[in-house]
Structures are given as C-alpha cells and as structure tokens.
Design brief:
alpha/beta; two-stranded antiparallel sheet; 12 strands
Length: 341
C-alpha cells in the first residue's frame, strides 16, 4: 500500500512504511475512563491523520465492534491516508467476551469486521490472542485463506511468545507482532523482540505509556466503573503506592529534559529498536499532539540508562495481569514473574 508523505518518521511494516508513532483505537470506544462522544472521537482520528499518522489499529473486541464502526464513520472517506489494522479471535458476542481461534470463527469475525469497517480489505489482520485449545497452525490456515481471497493484506499476531511466532511464521510470513511494551512492561525483552528482529517482523508496542501511568496524569486509582485497570494488580494497593514513587522519579526525569512524561516513554520505546512501532491511544487532541511530539525527541544513552535504573528488574510492584487474564496470555514471563507464579 502506498501511503501519503508524512512529516513523522516512518518504519517498515511488511512492504509498507508507516508512521513510527501511530494510533491505537481502543480507548475511543472502551477500556479507560469514559469514552469520548462519537463526534469527539472522529475529531481525534482526523487530527491524527492531519498530523501525519498513517496507521490506525483497531480490533473486533474494542467496544464490541464500536471502534470499527467509528473508523468507518469518521475516516473511511480518507481510506488512502492510512494503513488499517484490526484483529480477531478475541471478540464480543451477545455482550460476552469470547476467545475462539477456530478457523470458522475467524472467518466469521473477519466478515463482521469488514462490514463494520465499510471496506472489503484490511491491510493487517491480527490473531488477537492465542487460543490454547486450537493449534496456531489451524488458526493461521484461516488467515492464509483470507489473504488468498483478497480480504486481508498481511498477517499479524498479538500477545504471543517467540515460540508461537516461529510456528506461525513457518505457515506463512508474519508481518507484525503486537504486544504491550513500555519502561514498566519489559516482557518482550525476554525473547520476542529479538525473534521479530531475526525474522524481519515489525514489533508494534501497545500501551507504550503504561496504560496512562507514564503519561504524567495518574495520581489516584479511583477509576470509573468498568475501567480495565481496576482488576490489574499494578493499579491495586499496596502495589499502586509503590509504583507511584517510580512514576514520580520518571516524571522528574522528563521535567529535567523539558519534555512531557509521555514523550519520554514513547522516545524510550522507539529507541529500543528500528523495527518497533508505537501505538499510543488517546481521547483528546492535546494529548495526541503531545504524543506525536516524541517523534522529535532523541534520548542520550545516559537518559536511557536512568530510565532503566528506575524500572530495574523487580522494581515494579505487582504482575501485569491477574491470574485469570494471564492464563489467556502467551507472552513470556519475566524471571520475577515466574518466581511469583
């Protein structure tokens, strides 16, 4: 896909080059705090494209399809301006969250996504999670057939291990691996970051601002009902108070550099490798503009070392997910997480 010129730096994803800082669409429809109105969400998306963002990342799960419908309504008239990604396997059916990697389910999910998006083609389609009841090769077979039918362009994986990546890649080349990555979530460094570099797979970092924790705005864990951070151990006491002290040190470092904490976090993520693309999400245009300002930030080795010292192994209190959610995740655990298991 040939995308328009962008003032933002670009990085390769398959045969395309997209903005190194792109846009994750999840919190325009659910997850954090109160979602914006449809009109405000549309304004954020269009402003992102105006500023040079050339990749919008959605999923069937987000808002029970609401994210895909918003993209259709808000920016389908600008379809040539962005690389479109969405996901399957995780879905919301009849109000219930479903994890199903069977080929027939993937095929049905794709048809529903195409309809919601108002398109006949998705540039990058991810397996959102590994369904441990279905061999990855079977799920990949459905993705390959979708590509052969001309419904998707590239195949991606999300929240999966280096071992699963290699098994999937043996069926068909994987274009992108998406996983959580930020100064306080370092799991990709165990194996999958290197595996992506070795295989020529782009690594798409979601939650590069640590679910808002490294954006300088969270001082309380008094979240609104339904916020997905409520059951996350790192946002619960006594862990939360410990982690706030880490955030205070991080915020002070950003202030010393005369940049925002969000810019510091994003610049750190992008500095970890040339194959990494960051997809922060936001509900507001000021935060969007601040995030994109990270594209012009270059961190010194001393600053990177200072960040790594703040978030040294074992410094962050609490696991990333509770036990029930972690059971659905295929990513590698850190040594300290394995000790807690």
């Amino acid at each position: 896909m040939t995308l328009p010129a962008t003032p933002l730096p670009t990085r390769p994803i398959g045969q395309s080059a997209i903005s190194a800082i792109s846009f994750g669409c999840m919190n325009l429809s659910h997850a954090y705090d109160v979602p914006p109105s449809e009109e405000d969400g549309a304004r954020v998306l269009n402003r992102a494209l105006d500023l040079g963002v050339t990749h919008l990342d959605s999923a069937a799960l987000y808002g029970g399809g609401g994210s895909e419908r918003l993209l259709n309504k808000a920016v389908s008239h600008r379809r040539k301006d962005y690389y479109l990604a969405s996901k399957c396997v995780l879905d919301q059916i009849d109000g219930n969250r479903v994890l199903d990697g069977r080929p027939e389910t993937i095929a049905g999910s794709l048809e529903r996504s195409l309809q919601r998006l108002g398109t006949d083609y998705i540039d990058l389609y991810y397996l959102h999670r590994l369904d441990k009841n279905v061999p990855i090769e079977e799920s990949m077979g459905a993705m390959v057939r979708a590509k052969e039918a001309g419904k998707i362009g590239a195949i991606g994986l999300s929240e999966m291990s280096a071992e699963t990546l290699r098994r999937a890649h043996a069926v068909h080349p994987i274009t992108a691996m998406q996983s959580e990555y930020s100064p306080w979530v370092r799991n990709p460094e165990v194996a999958v970051l290197d595996a992506c570099a070795q295989l020529g797979v782009a690594f798409v970092a979601f939650s590069p601002l640590a679910r808002g924790f490294l954006a300088g705005s969270i001082t309380s864990n008094d979240f609104v009902a339904g916020d997905i951070r409520i059951p996350m151990p790192r946002f619960q006491e006594p862990n939360f108070s410990v982690n706030l002290k880490l955030a205070a040190r991080f915020n002070a470092l950003a202030a010393d550099l005369d940049i925002s904490p969000a810019q510091l976090s994003l610049a750190w993520v992008l500095a970890r490798g040339p194959h990494i693309i960051a997809i922060p999400g936001t509900r507001t245009i000021p935060h969007l503009e601040d995030n994109l300002g990270a594209a012009s930030v270059t961190l010194s080795p001393e600053t990177i070392a200072a960040i790594d010292a703040i978030f040294a192994p074992g410094a962050v209190a609490g696991p990333r997910y509770n036990a029930a959610v972690q059971a659905q995740i295929d990513t590698e655990l850190l040594p300290e997480e394995m000790a807690q298991a």
